[in-house]
Design goal:
The protein has two domains: 20-324, Transferase(Phosphotransferase) domain 1 (Transferase(Phosphotransferase), domain 1); 340-499, Tetratricopeptide repeat domain (Serine Threonine Protein Phosphatase 5, Tetratricopeptide repeat), CATH 1.25.40. It is of the alpha/beta class and 500 residues long. The chain is built from 19 helices and eight strands. Residues 1-30, 63-68, 369-375 and 490-500 have low confidence and may be disordered. Its main location: membrane.
């Protein structure tokens, strides 16, 4: 899912001056630049299957402890957009129409603090949600499993504020219930800004269960009634505040005991090493305590949360990715602009064969394989016959025969075509001869130095030779060439339109 740049985060200054973040975000009022977020749509199952390489286990990105069939995948659409796809079981949503209608409703709730929902799919037994892709992991990862540095205090305050903004926006859009709010539901975009997952806005988002966490963390009223209310969401927000304060996932009852005993130092994350002001920490602890009140009516509203947290914001001029120590990097998957690239990424030789058949020899137009008049008159008939029989064998998947005819054609032609080498390379692979396949794929590159197919065929051969790292490099090189071609074509079309 492509992430869009965030606006600078400004708040009310100490002297009460109104700064940018408290002004209306945009004319449309939803805090989202419309041209940066894809319109909500219903996707076809084939498109989402291709985007995830057949729902490959290697592309599973959920780390929330959710077990199959509720799994989140990373994917890339044909238009190069990165996405996250959540796959439910049919039992979660037996009614396909109800699922699509609920998803469309959630898809209208757009905000810069949300991981916006951009589509769904309800074909057969499949129930899939499609959202923007967040490349920088979850709050759980950064709080509980950090490697380089603990999350700075200023960033923790920013998380608390941004998530309160997201919940408040959902509330104003009549989406007052958020299911199972926890540190796994907060994700970080390419700018390092925290966003609240839109998956939690869906009803029945966990096979009909509103909480998957330990019962010690669920609102008291949910244990009594089994229902989620807006006040229940505030309680869960309080548990997230505890996570931010302590750097641990501790039961609310234990935290409240520490707070009542005024043992705040035991509650605070020791890795922060006093980088916070005691007054600010006390205020955040007090807010968490209010959120965790036993009676729902005693908990604060979202507006109160925003009013309480906004003055605590620190280092507002520093970008989130800088505070987090993150390197901005939007590359997450090879750029696959064509079905051939995707088929090679899956190492699907049958699909590659089908694509090469459909493509024919049209890519040879860029190769220098013109025959002289003498070669034409002397060799054309033999060449045509040899090529014809080779192509028939290739079509019929008689790869051994195809190799024989294509090998004769290589000898006859003074400058063999790159497509011929690509076809013979695949035939060698089908015949379990990856060394010869690699040789032909390299020869195809000699014929057309910037032909993506040549790189993809080398990737296939290298994979079959057990050279996985080199294979991935070739896939990426081929993808980069495709992206370059696509960019040049787009630029040319744009210039043609402008000039006309």
């Amino acid at each position: 899912m492509g992430c869009f740049p965030s606006k600078p985060n400004n708040f009310r200054s100490p002297d009460g001056e109104l700064l940018e973040a408290e002004k209306p975000d945009l004319a449309n009022g939803d805090g989202v630049e419309e041209d940066k977020v894809a319109a909500f749509k219903e996707y076809g199952l084939a498109e989402l299957r291709a985007a995830t390489n057949g729902f490959s286990r290697e592309l599973i990105i959920s780390e929330s402890g959710e077990k199959a069939p509720n799994v989140v995948y990373k994917g890339k659409l044909d238009n190069n957009r990165l996405i996250a796809i959540k796959r439910f079981s049919k039992e979660s949503w037996p009614d396909a129409r109800q699922f699509a209608a609920e998803a469309a409703g959630v898809g209208k709730v757009r905000h810069k603090r949300l991981v916006n929902l951009i589509g769904c799919c309800a074909e057969g037994d499949e129930r899939l949600l499609v959202a923007e892709y967040m490349p920088n992991d979850t709050l759980s990862k950064h709080l509980f499993h950090w490697e380089k540095q603990p999350m700075p205090w200023a960033m923790r305050l920013r998380v608390a504020y941004y998530i309160a903004q997201a919940l408040d926006h959902c509330n104003t859009e009549n989406r007052r219930i958020y299911h199972d709010l926890n540190a796994f539901r907060v994700l970080f975009d390419e700018d390092g800004d925290p966003r609240l997952s839109s998956f939690g806005v869906m009803k029945n988002s966990r096979d009909g269960k509103s909480y998957s966490t330990n019962l010690a963390y669920t609102p008291p009223e949910f244990l009594r009634t089994g229902r989620v209310t807006p006040e229940s969401v505030v309680y869960s927000y309080g548990t997230v505040l505890l996570d931010l304060l302590s750097g641990k996932h501790i039961p609310p009852s234990h935290a409240l005991d520490l707070i009542r005993g005024k043992n705040l130092l035991l509650l605070m994350d020791s890795s922060l090493e006093g980088q916070y002001a005691s007054e600010d920490a006390t205020k955040l602890v007090g807010l968490a305590s209010r959120c965790l009140q036993f009676e729902p009516r005693d908990r604060p509203t979202y507006k109160f949360l925003l009013t309480a947290i906004a003055p605590l914001q620190k280092e507002v001029e520093v970008a989130s990715h800088v505070l987090m120590g993150l390197t901005k990097n939007t590359v997450a998957l090879p750029i696959m602009l064509s079905p051939l690239g995707k088929a090679c990424a899956r190492m699907d030789l049958t699909a590659v064969h089908d694509i090469l058949l459909k493509t024919g020899y049209k890519d040879d137009e860029g190769a220098e394989n013109e025959l002289s008049f003498q070669e034409w008159t002397q060799q054309v008939q033999e060449m045509l016959n040899t090529k014809k029989f080779g192509d028939i064998a290739f079509r019929d998947k008689d790869f051994k025969t195809a190799i024989d005819y294509y090998s004769k054609l290589v000898v006859i032609m003074s400058v063999p075509s790159p497509t011929l080498f690509a076809r013979r390379a695949l035939s060698y692979l089908m015949n379990k001869q990856p060394e010869l396949a690699l040789r032909d794929a390299m020869q195809a590159q000699v014929c057309l130095p910037e032909w993506p197919t040549a790189f993809y065929m080398q990737a296939l051969a290298l994979s079959h030779l057990g050279m996985d790292t080199d294979s991935q490099d070739m896939l990426n090189d081929g993808a980069a060439l495709e992206a370059k071609r696509h960019s040049n074509t787009t630029s040319w079309r744009s210039s043609s339109v402008n000039s006309s």
